[in-house]
Amino acid sequence: MTPRNWLSEVDLSPANTLQLPSSAEYFCAPVTLKALQDCLRRAHQEMLPIQLLGGGSNVLLPEYLAGLVVHPALTQWWMEPRGDSLLAHVGAGVNWHALVMATVGKGLWGLENLALIPGSCGAAPVQNIGAYGVELADVLEAVEVMYLADGHLAWLSAEECAFGYRESIFKSELLGKVVITRLVLRLKRHAAPVLGYGDLAQRLGESPSSLDVANTVCRVRSEKLPDPAQLANAGSFFKNPLVSAEQARVLLDAYPAMPHFAQQNGTVKLAAGWLIDQCGLKGARFGAFGVHHRQALVLVHFGGGNRPELLAVAEQIAAEVKARFGVLLEIEPRLL
Ligand SMILES: Cc1cc2nc3c(=O)[nH]c(=O)nc-3n(C[C@H](O)[C@H](O)[C@H](O)COP(=O)(O)OP(=O)(O)OC[C@H]3O[C@@H](n4cnc5c(N)ncnc54)[C@H](O)[C@@H]3O)c2cc1C
Predict the structure, then answer these.
(1) Do the bridges between strand 134-135 and strand 130-131 make them parallel or antiparallel, or are there none, so unpaired?
(2) 332 a catalytic residue
C-alpha cells in the first residue's frame, strides 16, 4: 500500500525546466529529516529505486521514472555568528536564489555573484554551481548528507566534497548513495566584491553593496539567458571543455580570437558557446529544440519534444564541434 504522503503516477513535465514529458511511479516531498528517513525505509521495504529531484533545472528526465522520486523539502535555514563571519545553515529544500537575495539583503557577502541560478540549495554542491568568477566551493564550509541505504546522517567538509569545475564527489563516489540535507556556508560581514568577470566592474559604481552586485548579476543574466518560465531550457547544456595547453596553442594559431582561460592545473578552458557559434549553429532550430539565438550554450525546447530527440540534437552539435575543432563537448545536465 502506498504511504499516505506519497503521490503516484505524478506528471513531472512541470517539475523540470526543460519541460520534457516525464512521470514518476511514486513521488514524495519530505519536510523533516525524520520524514525523509521514513521515505527511504519504506522505499527499501518495497524494493523501489530512489531518484532525487530538486528544482529540475539541471536534469534530462526520461519518459517514465520507475520507483520513488524524492524531492527534499527541508526549507529551514538559520545563521550562527562565527568570528568575523556568519555561518548560514541551509536546508536542502531552500530555493537557491531566494537564499542569495535574503543574505545580500542583510548586507552579507559571498553569494552575490551566484544570484539567479535556478534550483534548490541541496543540488548546489552536486555540480559545484558557479557563475561570474565564484563557485559554491568558495563559500561552502560543510555538507550534511543522509545515506540512502540506511538513513544515517554524516558530515563532509568542503575538502571532502572534492570540488572541481562542475564536479564533486556527489557525481562520482557518492553518486546514488546520499541525499544532501543541509549546507553550511561562510558569509562575510565586510565588503569582498569579486568583479573581475565580464563587465561587472564597469556596470557597478564605486563601493557597491553585495545587493548592488547581486542585482547587476541578475540584470546581466536576464539580458543573456532565456527565462525557463518563458522558454524551456536547462541553462548551459554543455560544459566548457578543458583542453591541454598544447591543443589550445594549436587552436589559437588557427583561431586567434578564441576565448580561452588558463587553469591552475595547466589545462585551458574553452568557451563551448563560442565553439558552437563558430559552427554557425547559434539560433539553429532542430524540430522541437533549438540553439538559443543569444547564447549558443543554451538549448531550448519549443514544446512537443522528448529526451531521445534532445540527445540526438546534442550529439549532432557535439559532432560538428568535434569535426571543426577536434574538441569534445560533454553534456552538463544529469540524465536521471
Ligand atoms: C536558466 C538556467 C541558468 C543556469 N545557470 C547556471 C549557472 O550559472 N551556474 C551553474 O552552475 N548552474 C546553472 N544552471 C544549472 C542549475 O541551475 C544548477 O545545476 C542547480 O544547482 C540545479 O538545482 P536543482 O535543484 O534544479 O537540481 P535538479 O536539476 O533537480 O538536480 C540536479 C542533480 O542533483 C541531484 N540532486 C538534487 N537534489 C539533491 C539533493 N538534495 N541531494 C543530492 N543530490 C541531489 C539530482 O538527482 C540531479 O542529479 C542553470 C540552469 C538554468 C535552467
Answers:
(1) antiparallel
(2) yes
**Bridge-partner residues for 154, per DSSP?**
145
Task: Output the nine-digit C-alpha cell for 298.
Answer: 543554451
Give residue 207 CA to ligand 1 midpoint distance, Å. Answer: 32
User: What is the H or E stretch that residue 100 is in?
Assistant: helix 96-105
CA distances from 31 to 12, 36, 68, 71, 146 (A): 19, 7, 16, 9, 14
* CA–CA gap between residue 120 and residue 117 (Å, rounded): 9
What are 64-122's pLDDT values in tens digits? Answer: 999 999 999 999 999 999 988 999 999 999 999 999 999 999 999 999 999 999 999 99
The pLDDT value given to residue 198: 80
C-alpha closest to that of 228 among 112, 326, 119, 315: 119
Amino acid at 100: V
pLDDT of residue 180: 98
Q: Which residues of the chain have pLDDT under 70?
A: 1-4
Q: Is residue 73 lining ligand 1, measured as CB closer than 6 Å?
A: no
Q: Name the residue with the closest Cα to ligand 1, atom 12.
A: 129
Query: What pTM did the predictor assign?
Result: 0.95
CA dihedral in degrees (203, 209, 215, 217; nearest 10)? 60
Rounded to whole angstroms, the Cα distance separating 78 from 141 reads 15
Question: What span, in angstroms and rounded, lies between the C-alpha atoms of 240 and 50?
Answer: 30
